[in-house]
Write a structure and sequence with these properties.
alpha+beta; six-stranded antiparallel β-sheet
């Protein structure tokens, strides 16, 4: 069994599902790994807020979604999408990359920027920089 990729997710976020597992040079993906762990539904995280002392999904917040496209294909890539407030709303950030470590940094950059109240345009630019290095 593979371990989940460690992500720094601060308070104020709800991890709805997470099947984003670690791969590395010492243990590269197998054919079965592509079938089971390189799918369109790897990770989904929603921003939350406190209402009357209780954490709730923020209806005007953000949804961070990670998938592998095309689904199960070894030649594919991770695609990170940030939408507001959900998939019926606007896509505010969208990047793709094959390297797991790069996508991990991009996810953490998005979440940290949103948590800290940065402008979406500034977050998007920083994420593009992370992916292009």
């Amino acid at each position: 069994m593979r371990a989940l990729v460690p992500l720094r997710v601060p308070a104020g976020w709800l991890v709805e599902y997470n099947t984003f597992v670690e791969f590395g040079p010492d243990r590269p993906p197998t054919v079965d790994d592509y079938r089971w762990h390189h799918t369109q539904d790897l990770l989904q995280i929603r921003s939350c807020k406190v209402v009357d002392g209780v954490w709730q999904v923020d209806p005007d917040g953000f949804l961070v979604d990670l998938g592998w496209y095309p689904d199960g294909e070894p030649t594919g890539a991770y695609r990170l999408v940030v939408v507001r407030p959900d998939f019926r709303g606007d896509t505010v950030i969208e990047v793709s990359h094959r390297e797991q470590s790069v996508i991990c940094r991009a996810i953490e950059t998005c979440i940290a920027g949103i948590t800290n109240g940065a402008a979406v345009s500034a977050i998007a630019e920083e994420v593009r920089d992370v992916v292009s290095r």
